[in-house]
Amino acid sequence: MSKRSRIDRFADTGFYEAPNRKELFLPQSRLALMTGINLILKGLVLAAAMAWKTGWSLVLGFTVSAVLQSIVAPQALREKLGSNHLRPVAIATLAGAASSSCSYASAAIMRTLFKKGAALGPSLAFLVASTNLVLELGVILWLLLGWRFMLAEWLGGLVLIAIMVPLSRAFVSQRLIEAARDHEEAGRGHDHGAMTLSGETWRDRLRDPKALNVIAAAFAMDWRMLWKDLVAGFLIAGMLSAVVPGDLWRTLFLSGLPEGWRVFAEALIGPLVAILTFVCSIGNVPLAATLWGGGVGFVGVLAFLYADLIVLPLIDAYRRYFGLKMALAIAATLYVSMVVAALVMGGVFDLTGLTPKPVAGVQATLATFAFDYSFYLNVIAALLAGWLFWKARPAPMHDHSHHGHTAA
């Protein structure tokens, strides 16, 4: 096949318009350069459109998360998570759902809980809930993929935890658990630090004069930890949407297999693809939209979404926190749980008729900018975020010495 015909064939995939008659007379090198530049520009537009559609929901979710992080007492939480029984797991799940959505921050908090005496089951339940059951993740899924994916993410997160806790008891010996607790850490990852307020109840903590400053600090910290992952997620999704044809995604996920085998293969492959993306819980939603638009099945996309906790940088963080054997045990437990949870949710949605229909051209739908609800919500969100960042700025030294907090 000639060089010209290869370029024309790539251009006719549907992700890029074929060259017009005038362009066909351009030199091959110039035509290839123009094709590449247009694809990059299209990828950037798609990335910006995805970020635009979800910007306000991120601010809303991080604000709610910051409030809840600030009023929950961590010491009381650790004291209630000392066994793998139902109640500690439920408490950890609820606490995780009310906590940070940053995978790296969640891993750091999980490390603290575990090393302070929490059992492995509740510690992992907190980890999963804090990345799969949080508000902002559900809202972004609704905006980019529809409410069925949001429901599948939240219900699937609960199923994942229900599978993972007994699996962790089977996969991880008590001897390995004790060795992991005593492991000398090789460096520190992203950490939240102490962000709580004083008071016996959550109402008392909200009345603390420092409440607004502490909440703003938690909000700003989440953004500082997460913005690189979000930018990477949107850019990766935008570029892959522009460059990779749907046939390649379907081939990668073995979508040509008979139905039963195809679903099973997609569930196995989805987490493996996620491992290589290096993107955290919210950052991988745009890429999930790209997979869905490219023809990957419902179960494969769900398995990909669940797998944000086993990307390579996080596995390395587990190694630094707990040692290599424990890191591999955690990764294996999470992987098996994610695959099974995706298969279970796929079966439940199929039986109830809730499985969403593939949406052709989802990228084109996203690449729209208009004066609709997104514009007005983004303006409000930008004002709120700016105010919270202003409140989170370091206080002058004399304010610390006399008042202990900045003026509201």
TrEMBL record:
Subcellular location(s) of the protein: Cell membrane
Keyword set includes Cell membrane: yes
Keywords, sorted A to Z: Cell membrane, Membrane, Transmembrane, Transmembrane helix
Sequence intervals crossing the membrane: 31-52, 89-110, 122-144, 151-172, 230-249, 261-285, 291-315, 327-349, 369-390
Chief location category: membrane
Membrane topology: Multi-pass membrane protein
InterPro entries for this protein: DUF318 (IPR005524), UPF0718_permease (IPR053166)
UniProt key word Cell membrane: yes
A single Gene Ontology CC term: plasma membrane
Family (UniProt): Belongs to the UPF0718 family.
Name of the molecule in the record: Permease
